[in-house]
Amino acid sequence: MFKDGEINGVVIRVMAKHLDQRGWLMEIFRQDELTNEYYPAMGYISMTKAGVARGPHEHVEQADLFGFLGPSNFKVYMWDNRKNSTTYRNKMVVLAGIDDPKSILIPPGVVHAYKNVGNEMGMVTNVPNRLYAGYGRKFDVDEIRHESDQTTIFQLD
Fold first, then answer.
1. Angstrom distance (rounded) from CA 22 to CA 5
2. The overall pTM is greater than 0.90
3. Residue 157: pLDDT above 90?
4. First CA to last CA across the chain, in angstroms?
5. Rounded distance, CA 17 to CA 111, Å?
6. Residue 112: strand pairing partners
7. Burial letters for 104-142: b for 16+ Cβ neighbours within 10 Å, e otherwise?
8. Which of 1, 3, 106, 133 could form a disulfide with 137 if both were Cys (CB 3.0 to 4.6 A apart)?
9. Measuring CA to CA, how many Å separate 149 from each of 1, 5, 24?
10. φ, ψ at 104 (rounded to 5°)
């Protein structure tokens, strides 16, 4: 049903680790590398246990800008579910984390999931362009969840 290939609008950047005597620093996002439609509205950090997946799910309006920086590694899955996209039904799988830190911009309509494929807890940052549940957390969450559907076409390896 899906074919391997790039997905229009997905932006993957290698995150440069700047080391000095105090430790390291990585830039999560820069305004000069994003169009204003993707400027963050909030940010969060999550930790995912080894062997655990989050997703697949998608957003109608929200774009996610994830940072996979470690201390573990992740397999990131993306499926283009946008019927008007030239890459509709393409699937991308990317490895990212401590061994190859990356930021990944996932536009609305691209189903996504990630799995910690390492042996320890892994940290992921996200600076989405919409507020979770809207201003004051008073609105419906912009999320279509597929992970509880055993028959979903969005399958992780």
1. 40
2. yes
3. no
4. 15
5. 28
6. 57, 78
7. bbbbbbbbbbbbbbbeeebbbbbbbbbeeeeeeeeeeeb
8. 133
9. 17, 25, 40
10. -135, 120
Residues making up the chain, counted from first to last = 157
Residue 112: left if φ>0, alpha if ψ -120 to 50, beta else—which one? Answer: beta
- The encoded tokens of residue 72 equal 């573990």
The 10s digit of each residue's pLDDT in 90-146 is: 999 999 999 999 999 999 999 999 999 999 999 999 999 999 999 999 999 999 999
Joined together, the tokens standing for residue 9 give: 């609008």
**Is residue 124 within 8 Å of residue 45, measured between CB atoms?**
yes
Q: How far apart are CA 150 and CA 12, in angstroms?
A: 29
